[in-house]
Model the fold of this input.
Amino acid sequence: MNRKNIKKSSKTNNKDKKPNTILWIGLVVILVPCLILLYILLGTKEKAGQPVVGDRFEGELDPGITDEQLNSIREALVFENAENVEVNLISATLRITINAKDDISSDGALALANSAYDKVMEVLPVETYFTNVKDEEGKMKTKMYDIEVQVYNVLKQDNPNNISLIYFVKSKSANMSEPILNNFASPKNEEVANELLNPAPPEAE
Done:
């Protein structure tokens, strides 16, 4: 074989190799994202159903309310005019729910709400547990708990459509300086309430 034939054959081989190289590079470019996607899918499948462990109140609620303190509150909240008392700590809010006895009056329910609130403060001082801590510049440093005391009673009258409701809520958020008391059984605006409950009949054309 002469030199011309050798050179020609060499050039032919180089031409054959070039497309193969491009093909392999293309395959690698396609496979890498596919492998990454497969890895992510497998990792997600393995973690499916597992709870996300974390605390959204990290660095806050310091000091925290303990189970022992909650038990002390339950022991303190014993009233003759209450059928049932529930104490729950949910989402940084201490909720006291009191189902009053049937013969309680509106004034009695109001006094019950105030008494329950005061007894909680004897166990958990308001300045320590229910007031945000601020720095020297007045910016919030530590977020603390909110408190909500609910006292309610529902009485059915002789007429089943007639229901007498007593519902007081005494609450304080950690941002507030003083608690507020709401009577949800009594509308704040009687006129608007009457218009909503007893709409005027449509005028005849």
